[in-house]
Amino acid sequence: MSIHGENLRKVTTQRLLEMKRRGEKISMLTAYDFTMGTIVDNAGVDIILVGDSASNVMCGNVTTLPITLDQMIFLAKSVVRGAKRAMVVVDMPFGTYQGNSREALASAIRIMKETHGDCLKVEGGEEVLESVKRILSAGIPVMGHLGLMPQSINKFGSYSVRAQEQSEADKLVKDAHLLEEAGCFAIVLEKIPAKLAKQVASELTIPVIGIGAGGDVDGQVLVIHDMLGLTQDFSPRFLRRYANLQEIMNDAISHYVSDVKTGNFPNDKEQY
Ligand code: KIV
Predict the structure, then answer these.
(1) Does residue 256 sit within a domain?
(2) Which residues belong to the active site?
(3) What is the mean pLDDT of each run of 10 residues along the chain (272 residues)?
(4) pLDDT at 8 (0 to 100)
(5) Ligand 1: does its nearest atom lie under 6 Å from the Cβ of 56?
């Protein structure tokens, strides 16, 4: 798909709401740099998430916790330069919004001012509601994130499916309503039973974007490195690999190494 005419219209929170109302599914993918942001935008993705999964796939950390505000700002700035149509959502990194809503607002304002992104995403429900409300009060759109919340991995203890117990499912439904009432424009639900995600999507008027949350939600998100097969060691059931770029890159790079070693590159035409 290429973008032109009507499709070039920038994706806004209002357009996402309209998409939900008319049953048009929302596509969302992560990107962390200018080139990837440009490719994802040109391919017609509705929302680009500058996810804190950058901590894993870009920086090689085991969790999302170490990535800093400065690092997220650096990555988001580059993505924004490449995104013409897609909405760019920037993850607020761990430690920048939990516990202190004034600091949360200060971090949020820094991200918006320095990156020119469109919106922010935060993980959590009731616990972060004060921060969410304060950020929203500055006119900054916020996307929620419930279910498996990687910033809470040390509390959860594993990346297994969340909200399988009734008490956790009840809390998730309550949190989703609290986030909608506070004014969030959308919510990501990560790795929860499909039936529960379907219930949340049908109860809320704002779009619900799933990752490992089944098909009965308003849109889907994946980490681009995973869906393109750049990463190979991460294979949850919900992940569909659309390409095997690791193999393609490995073949190309080893071919280059061999050409350099044998003197086959550069040839006569590849020089001045
Ligand atoms: O950081 C991220 O990539 C995310 C997605 C998994 C939703 O939050």
Answers:
(1) no
(2) 190
(3) 62 98 98 98 98 98 98 98 98 97 98 98 98 98 98 97 98 98 98 98 98 98 98 95 98 98 98 98
(4) 78
(5) no
In three-state secondary structure terms, 247 is helix
Q: What is the dihedral of CA 20, 132, 172, 167, to 10 degrees?
A: -170
* Residue 196 within any structural domain of the chain: yes
Q: Identify whether 267 is part of a domain.
A: no
Length of the chain: 272
Could you tell me if the CB of 142 is within 6 A of ligand 1? Answer: no
Strand partners, 259: none
Q: Is the CB of 188 under 6 A from ligand 1?
A: yes
What's the CA-to-centroid distance between 268 and ligand 1, angstroms? 47
Identity of residue 185: F
pLDDT (tens digit per residue) in 216-245? 999 999 999 999 999 999 999 999 999 999
pLDDT at 92: 98
Tell how far the Cα of 123 is from the centroid of ligand 1, in angstroms.
10
Domain annotation covers residue 152: yes
d(CA 2, CA 224): 19
Domain count of the fold of the chain: 1
Q: Are 62 and 43 in contact (CB under 8 A)?
A: no
- In this structure, the residue with its CA closest to atom 1 of ligand 1 is 51
Q: What is the pTM of this model?
A: 0.96
- Top mutation candidate among 45, 96, 190, 225 for ligand 1, by most atoms within 8 Å of CB: 190
The token duo for 87 is 């909405």
**Domain range enclosing 180:** 3-241
Q: Is any ligand 1 atom within 6 A of the Cβ of residue 220?
A: no
Q: What's the confidence (pLDDT) of residue 1? A: 45
CATH number, domain with residue 230: 3.20.20.60
